[in-house]
């Protein structure tokens, strides 16, 4: 019964989120339900356990969220994100429309640019390329998601929060599990590229063509915003990647990512200041975005803290730990399930790692393997329909319906990502 009531609590959180109810309100309601039905003291659960989970995550990762959001705003406001996207698409050309979209997203997300900034920056250019190539536009969300939250997200060295969080629990660096992580990422890229092109080719063979929407904005080339030189646009991205390589050898991962992003922001502002319209406004908008993003994630983490004290949660973890096969497999399944239930990769890691990390470290498993598998396994079921980025990409950015766009998105972000995770589990089990 305790497991059933916990699942109802999770269902409440998912249902309210999918319905568009604020995630903080949803998490409080779901946490209250879980606390009441599991016999916890409701006052202690909400003012103690819940708030400790919320403030603990906020305090640990606020600066990372803040600098990441500001960096994304600076890259968007200066036109650097759009310049990078145009550069990639100009090199590859209309015949490579799909891969141009994917690679433009990948370069920016691996360089630390916010997912949402990438989506909004690349989408108009993706529409132009798909129009010129006469490809079905319902596959644009899949291309955006594939380039943003799959191979590039769990690529070793990524400054994204999912690759930073495990360092705290395993004593690792963002580059841990490097070689097998690279192999799994390349496998995911190759598999995704093949199937995305296959889906589009089949749709074209059935007679599908590009469809014009009323929401499309026709760009007048003469009035188009002047963009920075591609070298200036790419420089901050290079600074982030180089900073991660350098600082991670000296500092712990969270500090390394903060320093790398700070350096990139300073360089971007110095080299592209003339493209910024209202410097302090840009910083303010980035700060507001950061507060919203980290509060939303902290709310999910806090819900997980309340859920983790229930008998049902303990029973689920114990059941997963008894799954036959290599220990990495059970860890991957557990993290994937929790990330899927919360609709958040970072939320899934924040809930599962404090509980699972000591268990698997005590088994003597290589910390680098634990780090890389945990990052990859948080990236599969987290992309179910209630994921915030998936909803935003399909509905708000691409103006599509889930019926038309989500099947391809699910294949790219859920199915193939889990295939890559399975490969990583096999390789780590054999070679570590």
TrEMBL record:
Family matches, as Pfam families: GntP_permease
Cellular component aspect of the GO annotation: plasma membrane
Keywords, sorted A to Z: Membrane, Transmembrane, Transmembrane helix
Keyword Transmembrane carried by entry: yes
KW Membrane (keyword) present: yes
GO MF terms held by the record: gluconate transmembrane transporter activity
TM segment ranges: 6-36, 57-76, 96-127, 139-158, 178-200, 230-250, 256-276, 288-308, 328-353, 405-431
PANTHER family assigned: BLL7963 PROTEIN (PTHR30354:SF7), GNT FAMILY GLUCONATE TRANSPORTER (PTHR30354)
Protein name: GntP family permease
